[in-house]
Design a protein that fits this description.
eleven-stranded mixed β-sheet, four-stranded antiparallel β-sheet, alpha+beta, 281 residues, 2 domains
Length: 281
């Protein structure tokens, strides 16, 4: 099952994709009017399963305008969870490379605030690169969808757009390198899962004037930390009554001589979820 958020004449609504058929979940279950209502339930996955008989009565057209799959949730992110990410951040850093080595091996993971909903772009909407940065990259990441009680109930695709030149100047510049308008994209849907974590293939391609200038592939099997561990640290001293989104880090980094340019198109595909596509502004 995949849950998604779409635009309607009555405002944003929730839909459910079951075996390729799309249905109006909000029409079938009016109390599931948005992601916050769903993630506030004690068992969001069971609620969807219980709705299947009723939701089949409300089919949707296929040509829908999909919205980013969040409404009031904060987006947080993890760093240095893949060996490739650790190496890349050590290479970019002018004086703090050892910090990343320590974080990779430490008991406590790196977790930082990434975006509020107003700064998150849906698939098809433009992400941005900073005007004051000369080295900018997309970071394709499996994103955990976490309920208000801290359970992982699904997965989506995240793009943690980052300025490597700003972060490389000093690790303390991380917020400026990571948090700005248009620096995060999520979507297009949430793959609902209540059966534990299974490794997923992640692919990314970048097009420039219609030609591919980068492509690569990795797998979440290379994550050093379990998703449940990352969530447990996020929820230690924070409350998310309407749930939260947690990017799990990237294992796919373009080479050091690559930087995003205005007009590029970034495609991120995660097995079992779909493809997140964003032009660059």
């Amino acid at each position: 099952m995949h849950i998604f958020r779409f635009e309607s004449l009555h405002g944003p609504r929730l839909g459910l994709d079951v075996d390729g058929g799309r249905y109006d979940l909000t029409a079938a279950v009016p109390n599931l009017f948005d992601i916050s209502a769903w993630l506030s339930l004690s068992d969001p996955v069971k609620a969807l399963r219980d709705s299947l008989a009723e939701v089949s009565r409300f089919p949707l057209k296929q040509d829908l305008t999909l919205l980013a799959p969040l409404d009031v949730q904060e987006v947080w992110a993890c760093g240095v969870t893949y060996l490739r990410s650790k190496v890349a951040r050590m290479e970019e850093s002018e004086g703090g490379g050892d910090f990343y080595d320590h974080v990779y091996d430490a008991e406590r993971p790196e977790i930082f605030f990434k975006a509020n909903p107003e700064r998150v772009k849906a698939s098809g909407q433009p992400i941005r690169i900073r005007r004051d940065s000369v080295w900018n990259v997309p970071e394709p990441e499996l994103t955990l969808v976490v309920s208000g009680v801290g359970d992982i109930v699904g997965y989506t695709i995240g793009n943690d757009v980052s300025s490597r030149s700003i972060e490389g100047e000093n690790p303390l510049y991380l917020p400026q390198a990571k948090v700005y308008d248009g620096s995060c994209a999520l979507g297009p849907v949430i793959a609902v899962s209540g059966n534990g974590f299974n490794p997923r293939k992640i692919q990314m391609s970048i097009l420039r004037e219609g030609k591919e200038v980068f492509s690569g592939e990795t797998s979440t099997a290379q994550l050093r930390r379990r998703p449940e561990e990352l969530v447990s640290y996020l929820f230690r001293e924070l409350t998310f009554k309407h749930g939260a989104f947690l990017l799990t880090g990237t294992g796919l980094v373009p080479p050091d001589d690559f930087t995003l340019e205005v007009g590029d198109v970034v495609n991120i595909t995660i097995e079992g979820v779909g493809t997140l596509q964003n032009p660059v502004a």
